[in-house]
Amino acid sequence: MMNKKLIFSLLFGASLVMSADFIQAQNAESYESLMKKGNDKYAAKDYISAKTYYEMALKQKSGDATAKQKLNETVKKIQEDGARQEVFYAHLDAGDQYYGQQKYEDALSEYEAALKVFPEDKYVGGQADAVRAILKERQDKQDAFDLAMSQGETLLNEENFDAAILQFETANGIFPNDKLPKEKMAEARQKKQLYNEKATRFDNLMEEARQLGLRKNYEAALQKIDQALELFPNDMEANAKRNEWQNAKGVADRYNGIIAEADRLYEAKSYKEAKSQYQSALAIVAGDAYATDMIARLNPLIAEQDAEEAARIAAEQEAARLAAEAEAAQLAAEAEAARLAAEQEAARLAAEQEAARIAAEEEAERLAAEQEAARLAAEEAARIAAEEEAARLAAEAEAARLAAEQAEIEEHYNHAMGAGNTAMSAEKFADAITHYQSALIYKPEDPTATAQLAAAEKAESDRIAALRTQYNAFIKDGDANFKSNTFDKAIEAYTKAEELGLETYPTEMIARIGEIIEQNKLYELNSEPILLAAGQAQRFDFNKIDVAVRRSNYIIIKVRNPHPEKTFPMIVSFGGAGGKNGGFVLPIAATEEEKTFIFRIGSQYKWFSEDNTWIEIVSENNEVEIGKLEVSRSN
């Protein structure tokens, strides 16, 4: 795993960021020497290295028009090369994607577009030739294949599944490696299975409906047949049965409604009305056994009910006679009650005279009690006056104590408010919040402290929100580059997010990238420190890398400056049997701390297009210690 304590220098394929220490070198080369090296690199079309030298020259002679012009020309060349490579890689990626999907015409179109950018590219040329060969081989069989697929599709739409499968099998025999016939065969078999399952469900529902119809349970039968028609809406037999049972259900509903009302009247013993309803039911279903039987049952009940009515009338007449006799008896009883009431009134008046005597005695006793109470009240008033004086003196002492406490509270409050205001002026909002909260401890709900606390909390919230906005932008950029395996740019974005100190996520992602690069290394070219003298070249050989993974390649170099008082450039070149193909310049800063450089070498076209088999390192002016040197990939 990469050591997180090391400093990551992130080098992008189109630009090189120099450290401030390097720019402010005390032992820098002369302006003329740097310009010459920049011009040599520019002439060799090594624009990235040329840009580095021109920037260094500008630091030697600030504002120099020649260096500025050359730097601008170099940046423009880098941008142009970058744009061309982006166009090339976009067509290449699209071509490979179409090739994997067997969309060969589209793949050929994209490969040919890529070759317009770099006509001599071997990989794309080989892919284009392979696609042309496939298209030529397929042409003779294409008509038969297309016919079988078309007929299969038609039969599939007509739900003639077995015939459709035969056509798709024919197409599969023509192009066994084509995925589409196999997919269509699977689709046809699946649809056949679903159709058979639906037909079985339909037959079961129709049989259930027939059984319910035989039992004249038309409502349940209609529910079943409606479920069957949801599966096959145009089935003629099902639709005919539905109409038949819908009509039968209408007759049955009217009959059942009348019978239900007749039964209710029967239960309520309204026999004549019930008989009328049963007769109405017979008008709908002539000769109905149930209605006929109920009418026969009702006839004797109606006769019995008529007899009971005659007996009821006779009973009512007898009850009236008995009521008259009871009225006469009641009048005699009322006369006796009046006599008894007169006797009771006389007894009441005697009782009232006795009560008046007792009341006079009780009044005399009350007056004596009031006089005793007045004496006791005078004694109580004297006692209360003494207690009130004592309370007044105690209150004065308490007031003095409270005044002293209030003065102390005021002092603490003013100190906390002053500290809070000072922190606010210094935009240390978290400290201000703490001080204002302290002030509110001494003066709860104080409007000034409350208002200042609210202002500090809002300012702190706004500050955090602003940081969060920056953080989210950095994380979004980092995640996007991580997803696209552009790890150098991802580390740069995560590092910026990490510096805001909001979450541990960016730190975790930087560590994760380090793990991925370490796990995916292709070659470990050096593991033990090597000390290179000034001007000494050290070449590291390796076998050529598969072209399919070159674009995702990174070079990881650990470097230590044994002489931290000096800064200098270190040149990293790469090439193959035919010589040098490209390279870049690393700025070695004035620090003895080991630095890890991550360079996305896969972004350089010559790394992708050529069979590179060596990397060479040269320190121009000073000795340098080379630690780990790896070629890795992002995935």
Describe what you observe in this structure.
The protein has a domain of 138 residues: Sandwich (Jelly Rolls), CATH 2.60.120.380. Strands 1, 2, 3, 5, 8 and 10 form a six-stranded mixed beta sheet that branches. A four-stranded antiparallel beta sheet has the order 4-9-6-7. The relative contact order is 0.08. The chain is of the alpha+beta class and 635 residues long. The chain contains 17 helices and ten strands. 71% of the residues lie in helices and 10% in strands. Helix 3 runs antiparallel to helix 4 and helix 7 packs antiparallel against helix 8. It is flat, with a radius of gyration of 54 Å.
Class by SSE composition: alpha+beta
DSSP helix count?
17
| Rg | 54 Å
Approximately how much beta-strand content do the residues carry?
A: 5-15%
- Report the end-to-end length measured between terminal Cα atoms: 16 Å
CATH topology of the domain at 7-30 and 520-633: Jelly Rolls
Which descriptor suits the 3D outline? flat
Mean pLDDT: 86
CATH architecture of the domain at 7-30 and 520-633: Sandwich
Helix content: over 70%
Main sheet overview:
6 strands, mixed
Write the H/E string, N to C.
EHHHHHHHHHHHHHHHHEEEEEEEHEE
The low-confidence runs, each spanning 5 or more residues with pLDDT under 50, are: 1-27
